[in-house]
Structure formats: C-alpha cells, structure tokens
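Re: [ENG-882] Designed sequences occasionally contain unexpected residues at chain ends

Forwarding the minimal case from QA. Structure tokens:
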C-alpha cells in the first residue's frame, strides 16, 4: 500500500512540476488607423506544445472604436483563458512577451499602460526601435523612417527575392525599395484609400464618405464609373495602383512586388496581373514575431 501511495504522490508532484508557464509571443503594430495584434504561444513543455502549438493568430482592431484598448486587453485575456484551460488548468499560467512597433505615439502609450496594468506580473513590453532593425538603411535620415516601413521591408526581404518593392497600403500607402543586397533605399508616401475618399467627402458638398473595409473592394471597376461611388472608387484605386505602377518604373523595374497592409487585397486586385504582386497582409506584425525569442 505504502509503495502505491508514494508512487501516486510522486506522480502528482511530477504533474505539478511539469506545469510550466505558457509564454505567448505578442507583436502589436500600432498604425494610424488600426492596431494589429499577432500572438503565438511558445509553450515550454511537450504536453503544452502539443495542445497549443498553432500558427500565429492575428486580430486587427480599429482605432476609431472607442473601446479599442479594452478590446486588445480582452483579446489577450481570452487567449490566456484558452491556453491555461488545458488539462492542468489550475497550475498553468500564461505570460506575455510583447514587442510593439508604433508610428502613432498617442495610441501606443495608453495601450502599453493598460497592458502593464492588466497583466502586471506576467508581461514584458518592449518598443521596437531602429536598433532592432538588422537591415542596412541608406537614406538621408535613417532614424526618421517609420519603424513599420523598416520592419515590413525586413520581413519581405526574409521571405522574398530582392530587389524588392514593398507596398504597405493602410492609412497611407508607402512604396519602398530594397536593393538586391538587402539595403533599404527609401521610397514614396501617398494618401491611403480611405484618406483619399475621406478627403473627397470632406472637401465637397455632394460626395459621400466611403468605408473600404466593408465595400467589396477586391472588385476593380471594369470601365468608367457609372455612378458617384463607382467613380470615386475607380479614381482612388486607379490613383494608388497607377502610382505603384509608375514607381515600379522609377525604381528601375525588375523587382519582386510585395503588398501588405489592411488594404493589400484591394490594391493587389487593382494592379495589372503582370506586376505579379505578392499579397502579404500582415508583414509588420509578422516581423515583430520574428524578433521575439522562441523560448
Ligand atoms: N479592423 C479594421 N479597422 C480599420 N481598418 C481596417 C480594418 N480591417 C481592415 N481595414 C482596412 O485596412 C485599412 C487600414 O490598414 P492598416 O494597415 O491597418 O493601416 P495602418 O497600419 O495605417 O493603421 C483601412 O483603410 C481599411 O480599409
Ligand atoms: C508613413 C507612415 C505614416 C505610415 O504609417 P501608416 O500608414 O502605416 O499608419 C509612417 O511610416 C510614419 O510615420 N513614418 C515617418 C516618416 C517617414 O517614414 O519618413
Ligand atoms: K501600416
């Protein structure tokens, strides 16, 4: 009896000692329209790994939503519940290793305060800076280039053959060039789809605001716009796609065209097929995960 009891206790101790903390790697790309939260659990033991080892999860939360900070905190809390809900739920806990890339300080700062408060004893938040970017930057003022542009370029360079043209279609559309050697050479910045149609609506009496996220923006109008909204969409899509085509030539032609950002889908479909545009919607967020240690 004694032997059976002691072996049972040993087994229980083994179970408890095998309850490791599940580390969740979190990348948060804070843009001027939305934050993109990408998470990937990197559990420390085989058991947790088997049950949790999935690809990265991505969530985009609009900054126009007054509850956007709460939604971000709740998103991570729900993830913790799901992960710690494993067979040894009472002992497993979840901690977060967070990297933030921000081009919008007014939004990033309150978010980080809220995350520290919500997960105070189990979170580590680091802002990604230019020092974290391995890619050589050959522009007049390297430290002034948006960190999202650099991270997007670096992630594209890791995944596709240079030279590269990296287009990030979001609040603005950035069109950047990466040389065959992997050097960031700068690029162009133009108003994004929504910024352009918002300007049309704000600057006129008769033109309506358009919401690109809900519109079926993957359908490039065939011919001339036959109504006001069709004419606006065609004009804005043609201006952005036309700019990209022209910049391809200005940057010297033969390059892999990688398109990322919330409006990547719209733009890829608006570009001619011969551009061979590669759609990578969440390049910046993926770059943040690339920066996080696996264990
Ligand atoms: N959750 C979302 N909130 C806002 N815009 C979204 C969302 N999902 C997709 N979109 C589309 O993506 C665009 C924003 O792209 P994004 O890359 O997030 O911008 P930024 O990085 O500049 O904040 C919007 O113009 C909209 O068309
Ligand atoms: C150009 C950007 C506004 C793009 O931001 P986004 O459209 O992703 O919100 C951002 O990269 C930025 O603030 N850049 C600083 C200036 C520069 O890159 O030269
Ligand atoms: K962006």
């Amino acid at each position: 009896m004694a032997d059976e009891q002691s072996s049972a206790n040993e087994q229980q101790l083994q179970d408890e000692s095998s309850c490791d903390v599940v580390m969740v790697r979190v990348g948060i790309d804070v843009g001027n329209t939305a934050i993109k939260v990408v998470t990937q659990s990197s559990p420390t033991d085989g058991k947790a790994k088997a049950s949790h080892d999935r690809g990265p999860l991505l969530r985009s939360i609009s900054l126009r939503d007054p509850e956007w900070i709460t939604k971000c905190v709740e998103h991570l809390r729900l993830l913790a519940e799901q992960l710690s809900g494993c067979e040894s739920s009472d002992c497993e806990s979840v901690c977060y290793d967070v990297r933030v890339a921000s081009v919008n300080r007014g939004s990033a700062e309150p978010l980080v305060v809220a995350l520290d408060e919500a997960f105070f004893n189990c979170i580590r938040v680091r802002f990604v800076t230019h020092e974290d970017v391995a890619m050589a930057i050959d522009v007049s003022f390297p430290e002034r280039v948006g960190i999202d542009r650099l991270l997007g370029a670096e992630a594209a360079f890791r995944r596709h053959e240079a030279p590269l043209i990296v287009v990030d279609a979001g609040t603005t559309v950035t069109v950047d060039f990466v040389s065959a050697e992997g050097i960031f050479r700068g690029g162009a910045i133009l108003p994004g789809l929504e910024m352009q149609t918002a300007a049309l609506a704000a600057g006129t009496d008769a033109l309506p605001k358009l919401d690109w996220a809900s519109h079926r923006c993957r359908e490039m109008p065939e011919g001339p716009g036959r109504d006001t909204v069709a004419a606006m969409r065609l004009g804005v899509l043609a201006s952005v796609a036309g700019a990209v085509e022209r910049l391809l030539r200005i940057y010297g032609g033969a390059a892999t065209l990688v398109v990322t950002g919330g409006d990547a889908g719209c733009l890829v479909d608006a570009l001619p097929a011969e551009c061979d545009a590669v759609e990578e919607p969440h390049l910046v967020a993926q770059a943040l995960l690339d920066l996080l240690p696996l264990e």
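QA comment: On inspection the terminal residues look reasonable. The chain has two domains: 2-127, 132-285. Proposing we downgrade this to a documentation issue.
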